[in-house]
Amino acid sequence: MKSLMITKYGSLESSLEIQDIPIPKLEEEQVLIKAKAASFNPLDYKIVRGDFKAVRKIQFPVGIGRDVSGTVEEVGNKVKNFKIGDKVFSRIGENLVGTMSEYVISHKDEVAIMPENLSFEEAAGIPLAGLTAFQSLIDIVKLSSGENILIHAGSGGVGTIAVQLAKHLGANVTTTTSTGNVTMLKEIGANNVIDYTKTNYLELGEKFDVVFDTLGGSHTLDSFKVLKQGGRLVSIAGDLDEITSKQLGLNSFVRFILRMKASKITKAAKKKKAEYRFFLMSPNGKQLEELGKLYKIQKIRPVNDSLHDFKDSISAIEYLAKGRAKGKVIVKL
User: 8 falls in which pLDDT band (50, 70, 90)?
Assistant: First the structure.
């Protein structure tokens, strides 16, 4: 079968290659999916660049991509909740990475039936970004109705879902974006859209119960300036906290280095009596099913930027890496 593979660390153009590889063998608790569509996430190009060398070693060549939609081709002996022909989608586990491929293996607990009102291309953009928003807002910060939330970069893959999910939960949603995306974000439910080319969000003052940081860098630390006393800040791009460092199994020396790196954030959180969490989502078929229900009743709708053929998948991830995508970048298989 054809599969897009990472051959080494480096530039996207020099480190990615479409190769012929065997169809993966199915284990008893796994599902073999004939892929119809897949999507890229920023995590994918960051891994190619080598951003996470210190955290996780890679043996090349290795597949790329974590989101997939398609039909069930085969099921393992212990799989009872899916049958051949089912239309499914999945954020596959890290041990099975490689959804830019004709066939994909996923554990049964990480698969869900697709919402029947969505196309394969629409469904492929949901799993990683959707679960990131779902787990961050519901599991980590426990966003409540009536609370004020700031979502950085609302026009991105995670942002467009987070804005709609926060609105569904009853929150007052403020988000940041560039001029061209303001109208779209208002249409999908944002109460207040800040065009960062014209307005600095820091001028809003301490008005937010929750900040969802999807950008990292200076935005993580600056976000405490608009957070209320006792507020909650969850980041998917900032410095690792101690809880996540332990979950990743990092040794005590690496955790010490990370604590030093995050010391300014720790001090800012303490000063505000705020909760700070760096969060990595986990594949979860049950939660993906819950998300699917929200798409089915159109509380959340897909926002996809562009559709690319598999033969152009390297160009697709290069486009995503430029940081201008409005929603998700999808590859048709």
Answer: very high
